[in-house]
């Protein structure tokens, strides 16, 4: 049945004749066929998107550029993917971007390189996805097929070749220290359930259908479970297969740090906001304050910038003094931050003197 059946003008629907029985059955059959085709296409698209992210993950984590003769990930992407269309809609791009950050731990620059966008666009996509997750209270997995929050901004060492989706992952922080990455509580619970159903003899296809997952997801979970079992003794493995090993026990035994979906969304939002702040400061520094034309417009620009900057500094000072915790900051970084704050206090003291000069 073609679209020729559909009247071209539907505004005057009162004048349209009632469909004959045969025509009514034909169009209802067509609606069912199109709905089934759409569902199939969406399923195939979801699986393709998941495989695309997985392939990018492998190429990035296992440094594909080194043996291919490229100097960096960015050069590989420029040479190999310049003609590739990695996304077709803004929503699809945001999902892929969020997934690459959470699943793989790629920096915004690395994500921008493979997606063919700018670093600023990636930051906006991350902020949008994170804000949506926080606003709706939804799991970050609903925004993107993400399992972990990434801490690293650089690729792992060549020896770290384990796929992020199939084994407990570690990351290298900005201070160079290796840390265990956190893992979502919901992901641990799902893998516990997959382990139990695999032990019952069910196939990946059966598990995928029962839990409303893709077979690739079940496959990834099965690989992760195999990695977990390497750290368990036989009794613990049996309890895992029987569904008697709790989330807390499993994460402690294999060295994972479970966090909630809300925590994941907040951490992601904080990371994205921090990068955005750095970019804004860099822009103001280079394009405004240190611009050659500043000397002729400093009074006007100061009056424009001062309200926002002072309000921001007031909020930041309160956070630093009363809300922030420094447990995860290395000692050398603490000393560096301490010195920077001392300098900032001196500069602010000069600012207060300039605002209200003493008689």
Task: Tell me the major beta sheet.
Answer: 2 strands, antiparallel
Number of helices: 15
The structure class reads mainly alpha
Strand content: under 5%
Low-confidence regions:
1-5, 7-11, 133-181
Strand order of the largest sheet: 1-2
User: What's the shape?
Assistant: extended
Order of helices and strands: HHHHHHHEEEHHHHHEHHH
Distance between the termini: 89 Å
Helix content: 55-70%
**Total strand segments:** 4
Biased composition (Polar residues): 152-168
Keywords: DNA-binding, Transcription, Transcription regulation
Region (Disordered): 152-175
GO molecular function: DNA binding; DNA-binding transcription factor activity
Task: Describe the overall structure.
The protein has 359 residues and is mainly α. It has a domain of 50 residues. It is built from 15 helices and four strands. A two-stranded antiparallel ribbon has the order 1-2. Helix 1 packs parallel to helix 4 and helix 6 runs antiparallel to helix 13. The radius of gyration is 27 Å and the shape is extended. The N terminus is likely disordered.
Characterize this entry briefly:
With 359 residues, the protein is mainly alpha-helical. Helices cover 66% and strands 3% of the residues.
Features:
359 residues; mainly alpha; two-stranded antiparallel sheet; two-stranded parallel sheet; 15 helices; 66% helix; 3% strand; disordered N terminus; DNA-binding; Tscrpt_reg_HTH_DeoR_CS; Sig_transdc_resp-reg_C-effctor; DNA binding
């Amino acid at each position: 049945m073609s679209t020729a059946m559909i009247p071209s003008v539907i505004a005057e629907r009162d004048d349209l004749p009632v469909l004959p029985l045969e025509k009514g059955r034909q169009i209802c059959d067509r609606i069912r066929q199109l709905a089934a085709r759409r569902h199939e296409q969406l399923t195939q698209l979801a699986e393709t998107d998941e495989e695309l992210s997985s392939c990018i993950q492998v190429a990035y984590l296992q440094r594909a550029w080194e043996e291919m003769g490229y100097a960096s990930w960015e050069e590989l992407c420029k040479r190999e993917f310049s003609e590739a269309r990695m996304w077709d809609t803004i929503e699809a791009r945001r999902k892929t971007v969020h997934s690459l950050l959470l699943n793989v731990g790629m920096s915004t620059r690395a994500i921008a390189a493979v997606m063919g966008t700018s670093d600023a666009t990636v930051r906006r996509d991350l902020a949008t996805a994170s804000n949506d997750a926080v606003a709706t209270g939804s799991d970050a997995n609903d925004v993107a097929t993400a399992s972990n929050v990434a801490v690293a901004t650089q690729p792992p060492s060549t020896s770290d070749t384990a796929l992020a989706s199939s084994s407990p992952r570690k990351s290298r922080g900005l201070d160079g220290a290796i840390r265990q990455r956190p893992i979502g509580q919901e992901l641990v619970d799902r893998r516990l359930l997959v382990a139990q159903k695999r032990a019952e003899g069910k196939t990946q296809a059966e598990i995928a259908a029962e839990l409303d997952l893709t077979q690739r997801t079940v496959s990834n979970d099965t690989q992760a479970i195999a990695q977990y079992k390497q750290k368990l003794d036989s009794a613990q493995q049996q309890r895992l297969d029987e569904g008697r090993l709790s989330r807390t026990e499993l994460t402690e035994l294999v060295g994972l740090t479970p966090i909630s979906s809300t925590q994941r969304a907040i951490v992601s939002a904080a990371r994205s906001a921090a990068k955005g702040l750095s970019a804004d400061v860099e822009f103001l520094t280079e394009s405004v304050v240190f611009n050659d034309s500043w000397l002729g417009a400093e009074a006007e620009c100061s009056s424009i910038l001062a309200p926002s900057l002072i309000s921001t500094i007031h909020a930041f000072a309160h956070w630093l003094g009363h809300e922030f915790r420094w447990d995860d900051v290395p000692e050398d970084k603490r000393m560096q931050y301490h010195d920077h704050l001392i300098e900032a206090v001196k500069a602010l003291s000069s600012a207060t003197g300039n605002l209200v000069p003493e008689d």
